[in-house]
Amino acid sequence: MSSQLRDYCKQLKLKNIVEIYEEVGYETKEQYLAELFRMEVESRHSARVKRLLRKAGFLTPKSLEGYVFDPITWPRPSSKAEILNLAFLDQHENVLMLGAVGTGKTHLASALGVRACTQGKEVRFFRAVNLVNTLLEKHQAGTLSRFLQELRKCELLILDELGFVPFHQDGSELLFNVIADCYERRSVIVTSNLEFGQWNQIFGDNRLTAALIDRLVHHSHILAFTGDSIRLRQAMERSEHVMITTPGQTTTNSDSG
C-alpha cells in the first residue's frame, strides 16, 4: 500500500484496512469493497467489546455456556428468554437475584453483563461493599461528582453480594443516591443472599431501605434462587471421584467412609 493510501486510511480512521486489504480476494469492485468494509466493521466491534469488558470490571468474566438454570424460579410475567436476550435493558428494568450463597447468582449476573458488553453496551460491575467504599473515598477526596458522572454513562450497573457487610450510614446514603439516579434511566442487577425484609440490616435505616427497595422493585424481575450451594455440591462431587492409589490397591474417598 502506498504512503498516500496509508495517509488517507489514517485520516479516515480506517487503520485496520491497512492490515487486512491483502487478505480480501478480488472478484468485483463492489464485492471487494463490501468484504473489506465488513472486516473493518467486525474488527472495530471486536476491539470495542474488549474495551467494554475491560472497563466493566468483572472479577471473572462468565458465560452462559453450561449454566444450570434449575435452581431459579422465574416469576410471571418474567421469563427466562426475556432475561437472557437482555430485553429488560431497553426498558430500563432491573433484575434482582435473591437466594442462598453459592446458588449461581453472581455467575448469572456476570454472564448477563458480559453478554451486554458483546452487544456494545456499557456495563459496570461492583461488589456492593466495594462500590460503597469507593463512593466514600471519592466523597472525602472531593471527586465524587466526577465518579458519578462516569457511572451515568453505563447502561447496566451490577451490584454483587449485597448483604454480606453492613454499610456505614454515609455509605448507605451514597449508594441510595446511585440507585435512585438509575431509576427509569438505566438497568440495575442486584444479587443478595438476604430477603427484602432483612435489607435494613445492611442499610441501618428503615425509611432509606424502604425507599431504595421501592425504586429497585418497580419495573423489576425478581428471580428466586433455591437449592444447595453449587460450589459445595461440585466440591463434594469431585471428592467422591478422587482416586487414591496405593501399591496394589485403588479406592475412592467414598469407600473410606
Can you give me a brief rundown of this structure?
The chain is α/β, with parallel strands linked by helices. The protein has helices at 3-11, 15-20, 29-56, 80-84, 87-90, 105-118, 128-141, 144-151, 169-182, 200-203, 206-217, 230-241, and strands spanning 72-73, 94-99, 123-127, 156-162, 187-192, 220-225, 243-246, 249-252. It folds into 2 domains: 3-56; 72-226, P-loop containing nucleotide triphosphate hydrolases (Rossmann fold, 3-Layer(aba) Sandwich).
Structural notes for this entry:
- The chain has 257 residues and is α/β, with parallel strands linked by helices.
- It has 2 domains: 3-56; 72-226, Rossmann fold, CATH 3.40.50.
- Helix content is 51%, strand content 16%.
- The protein has helices spanning 3-11, 15-20, 29-56, 80-84, 87-90, 105-118, 128-141, 144-151, 169-182, 200-203, 206-217, 230-241, and strands at 72-73, 94-99, 123-127, 156-162, 187-192, 220-225, 243-246, 249-252.
- Strands 1-6-2-5-4-3 form a 6-stranded mixed β-sheet. Strands 7-8 form a two-stranded antiparallel sheet.
- Strand 7 and strand 8 (249-252) form a beta hairpin.
- The protein is elongated, with a radius of gyration of 24 Å.
- Residues 241-247 and 249-257 have low confidence and may be disordered.
Features:
257 residues, elongated, 51% helix, 6-stranded mixed sheet, disordered C terminus, 12 helices, two-stranded antiparallel ribbon, alpha/beta, 2 domains, 16% strand, Rossmann fold
